[in-house]
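Recall the central idea of this unit: under ordinary conditions, the amino acid sequence of a chain determines the structure it adopts. In this exercise we apply that idea directly, starting from the sequence alone.
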Amino acid sequence: MAKTNSIFVADDHPAFSEGLSAIIKSDSRWKICGAASNGEDALTQIRALKPMIAVLDVSMPKVSGLEIARTVKHEKLRTKIIILTMFDDGAYLHEALDAGVLGYLLKDSIATEILKCIEHVSKGKKFISPSLTDLLLQTTSEPESPMDLFKELTPTEKKILLLLAQNKTSAQIAKALFISTRTVQNHRVNIAAKLNLSGYNKLLEFALQNKSLLKK
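Accordingly, the structure predicted from this sequence is:
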């Protein structure tokens, strides 16, 4: 059972994490029960501490905030998830909602917005940064297919897709391309956004289905 009024914070930028914790502590209703600077540690602590709410950076070393959200949903943990991001992108937002995220905030949100989000999420209600709500309403009568959008990818993004098609993990891709795992995770989200793909494993499915194209 999730511990009432307990908030867990995870972000790999110490200054931001400390500032966020200070905002949360300014409201006597909430108590910080733990913090982490990488996703792997965050997931371990969430399982152990069972906080009511976990406030997570969307992109962290080892395990991303969205991957944690999916795991929490899959394992049917009671912890409610709030995602923080710098990206005002519809693909991120829909991916988060698919993962069971209740709160979705831009990292430059003001203190009152953060506290309002926590209050809503604590009651099981969704809260999305007001500046992002239009993204939920944006539709096109004839959306371009991923194949139409493939040409928009950079050479590095195409290499990552090819490695994905070979069933490589983010860590293995990072090693092959001499970049960080976090950079690979960011690329994967950006590629999914460019291809209008949302939902867990959709990018991997696209890569597997289009191996021949990726090798050209």
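Residues 3-137 form a domain with the Rossmann fold fold (CATH 3.40.50.2300).
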